[in-house]
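Tokenised fold entry reproduced for absentees:

. . .
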Amino acid sequence: MQKVKVISLNVNGIRAAKKKGLIEWIVSQAPDYICIQETRAQKKDLDLSFFSIALNNSCLKGTYCFSMKPGYSGVAIFSQKQPTKIIAGINIPEFDAEGRVLRMDFDNLYDSSPSFSLVSIYFPSGSASEKRQESKFRFLTEIKKKLWEWDQEQNLTGRQFLICGDWNIAHEEVDLKNWKQNKKNSGFLSEEREWLTDVFDKGWRDIFRHLRPNDVTYTWWSQRGRARENNVGWRIDYQVATTDLANRCRKIWVEKEPKLSDHAPLIALYDL
């Protein structure tokens, strides 16, 4: 059994984050896996430094799922291990064109967990317009089907799943500072929260809340005003896992510094 470090981070533009020290920070953390959201780039925009990050005794190799729209959305996974399979998208053109879901399968790496899948996911935001909120609701419908499909895969094969990313939903009142003022705003709508409750009731684990049930910790702050300085934030970034894998998480925390994005990295250690 070995300790495995997994990081999830919405970079709000991977090129901008690199200028703020993203690559150096990743090297200092030396994760086994890092899931990145909102890359806001296309392949032609990125040089080799965005695909391979040298560590002391290894190398993180990056795989991307790009949005067709320039400067928008996009996810990636960096891994020290070679995946046995890579699946980009969920076979829904509306969302696959936006580069929102990337899955990597790993097999026979760890004695205690021979098969697991890592997913980097970026849920749509509905805050810009009613049209975008409708798109978000459609995404919730489709991704729930995928979650049930993955759950069935786990039941049939024993494969464990870890889904890391920006879910753009704060689940409970404790998960955002100004919850009363946001009850009618995207990200804290009752329909969104009920959707997330249903996901967790079906067995998927919110690992942060599982291990730290009473913590008041946020992962995203508006860039308006002095929200981050005053800690007026939202917890919308998650590591969500099937039960067996969730039970193997020993520690999870939010890394507040350095400020690489309007989101903070969510870091977890697993015994695998």
Notes: The domain at 3-271 is CATH 3.60.10.10 (Deoxyribonuclease I; Chain A).
